[in-house]
Design a protein that fits this description.
With about 270 residues, the protein is α+β, with helices and mostly antiparallel strands. The protein has twelve helices and seven strands.
């Protein structure tokens, strides 16, 4: 199945499996990807965790024995957002390292949740409530240390933003996968890689969302097509969206899409 269609099928039927969803994203960059190879690697890592060792054993195995770490040298390397590369290179960004911890933990009975703290992604042990900074070698954090990390990464002062538990929200698997795509979206846009940006945006558009989200995604996708000199395709994409009577778009949004379609066709003159 086409990687975009496969991803859309996964996110369209309830809460997706996190490991399978992350590998479906990676298939966008590597269409011949064998997900079973990397699922087996997660199984292998789980087999290394001493039986009954709980969260401490999981963290020791991943971060001390296996050497997973945050990529501080090249944080915006797109490989940091692609699970097979993270498993192979043992480096990643907070959200992909969190996926490794969550999925290996699930296999050994340690239930971890992804935590979307502003500025930095963490995981939380459901049993103890302990937070873990997977980007910093699996360091466990108490509430004071969470606040310190929040302020260090966001620059928010106690006077401007009081710290409270609502700043440590559990996020769903679907939200984690969307956040991964948004990371790749930013990376590929900055690196001017329109072909890669195209598949990311196509995947992102398979996730239902409000019109105020869909219109910028569609126009950015059309621009990515235009950057590949595929202007007629870009115009067709925008016109089709503008004429879709089932789409929750207002008249101004439809006019915006039609205007952008005409601007792409103008490149053919």
């Amino acid at each position: 199945m086409d990687p975009v269609a496969r991803f859309g099928a996964l996110v369209g039927r309830g809460e997706p499996d996190l490991d399978v969803g992350a590998l479906a994203i990676a298939a966008g960059a590597h269409p011949g990807l064998d997900p079973d190879r990397w699922l087996a690697e997660l199984d292998r890592l789980a087999a290394l965790v001493p039986a009954g060792s709980g969260l401490p054993g999981l963290l020791e195995t991943l971060f001390e024995v296996e050497g997973f770490r945050g990529n501080t040298e090249d944080y915006y390397d797109p490989r940091n957002s692609l699970l097979p590369h993270v498993l192979r290179r043992r480096t990643g960004i907070p959200i992909t390292l969190a996926i490794v911890a969550i999925e290996v933990g699930r296999r050994v009975g340690v239930e971890l949740d992804g935590i979307g703290m502003p500025g930095h992604f963490l995981v939380r042990d459901r049993g103890s409530g302990v937070h873990v900074d997977v980007f910093s070698g699996g360091r466990t954090l108490d509430d004071t240390e969470c606040e310190q990390l929040f302020r260090a990464t966001t620059g928010a002062t106690p006077g401007s933003v009081p710290f409270h538990r609502e700043l440590l929200p559990r996020v769903s698997h679907r939200q984690i996968l969307i956040r991964m795509l948004e990371n790749l979206r930013g990376v590929y846009a900055r690196r001017r890689r329109p072909a890669d940006l195209e598949w990311v945006l196509r995947m992102r558009l398979t996730v239902p969302g409000p019109a105020e989200t869909a219109v910028p995604l569609l126009t950015e996708l059309a621009d990515a097509l235009g950057a590949q000199a595929r202007w007629p395709e870009a115009a067709r994409l925008l016109r089709k969206a503008a004429e879709d009577t089932d789409a929750p778009l207002d008249a101004a949004q439809r006019d915006t899409l039609r205007d952008r379609a005409r601007s792409h066709l103008a490149n053919l003159n």
